[in-house]
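User: Second chain of the day. Same drill as before.
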Amino acid sequence: MNTIKHSLMLVLLLFLMALGKASVGQIEITEIKNMGVSALKETNSIIQVSWSAQGAPELKHVSFELSLEVTYADGFVEHSQAKAPGSARTGRFEVPTLHRSGNQPAAEMTSFKASITANYSETTTKQVSL
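Assistant: Same format as last time:
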């Protein structure tokens, strides 16, 4: 009898753990856009990343960690990071418009790669009766 009770508790625990993982939010990057030259530093460009974030009602986004990787025509890769509050759905990066290296001609940006990590809190009440 005791073994059955322990088995049931284990199954219930595994079920609750799976249920908790199902409530994790989903993030989708909707746009990465070159907004043009920076007003503060005309050798830089502003890259804007937009995203949508959805989750269960008990899920509250606390903040987002953003990462941008810019590749230039000469193969150089520029890495930038930023943070955004949980209510934000856009973030901006200021990166060099051209990559300059020694006596080589200046290389233009050719591609962007963005990633977003959500930091969230979850409020859940669960009751178990056996």
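The chain has a mean pLDDT of 84.

User: Great, on to the next one.
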